[in-house]
Sequence to fold (372 residues):
Amino acid sequence: MHTPYKSTLLFLLLFLVAVNAAAAPLDQLNLNSPAFLLMPPGPVTFCGERVPLEIQDVKERFEREMLISAGDRVQAFLWLKRSRRYLPYIEQALKENGMPDDLKYIIIAESALKPNAVSHKGAVGYWQFIPETGKNYGLTVNGNKDERRNFFTSTQAALNYLKNLHGMLGSWTLAAAAYNMGEEGLLAEMHEQETVDFYNLYLYNETQRYLFRIIAIKLIMQDPARYGFKLTDKDYYPPIAFDRIAIGCTKDIPIKLIAKAAKTSFKEIKDLNPEIRGYFLPKGDHTILIPKGASEGFADRYENLVNNFFYDQGKHVYVVKKGDTLYSIAKMFDIPMLSISIWNKLDKKLRVRPGDRLVIYPKKAEPEANGM
Fold:
């Protein structure tokens, strides 16, 4: 008898076998095999700055991250598969800003190219900004929109931050370390330890490993076959195709209306615009992404859908009475509790209190004795 646990475990094992089979021959999974080439043929550098592998401690730290990164076959395989979706844009942005190409590997170390990555310290998004730093570099971070999850805006913010760190510290190696631990913390350690050499600084374990992890990612991404990853062009995920449109909202607009105007699903709009939180695009001017080709006729469809939704459907304002619960109100109007929660942006506990005014888009006639 197959239990859900056993079925899930079986699926996972089959997936890992398939990925590892594509990622490397069996002898290269043995890290002691001569086929596993740990050290690259030439000098190791980061942003043109040499890594002093002749220092035993530096060599050991480098080898540790190489073994961990190359040994995590599934994760490294996913880095590679996602890379062509995102890295070409970063490469172009770095070139336009006169910055080293190696900086593009920071995003992989930070989030593995996932928009919804969240750290235990509250850093969010592709480039793992904490709220304060994100806001300092022009990102909107609030309950309606979190641009740390927007690939394009967060990438520009990250490049600006890194450029400022380099100007402050004079080294891309130190700039990367400061990106991880914060410039104030790094400056304090440099002052206390009286050194500006990253490789001689005693830092938190996470930051000590951080640069070497980026370098390991760089080496794997530059020559995947050397480390046992054999991908063909069809194995890489394609770039996301989209149209970018400007949209003005005179009030909070349900995302489902935008999806209908773009002739797509709610999910695809959310996937293309992970910075939008919840179910509404808030009042104001926005630039959003919609599927490629959907911009043709979008404006007319959008205007008609919004007018129909707000003027033809008609909303009802229900005043919560003593003894009411969200469940009883939902049952009264024959609509799901979650819909009322979404329309009124209720907290996760779904609490309502006497006197609260709830916007309702009823499916049936209004019950009697409701307040307006």
Notes: The chain has three domains: 4-235, 242-312, 316-360. The mean pLDDT is 87. Residues 316-360 form a domain with the Membrane-bound Lytic Murein Transglycosylase D; Chain A fold (CATH 3.10.350.10).
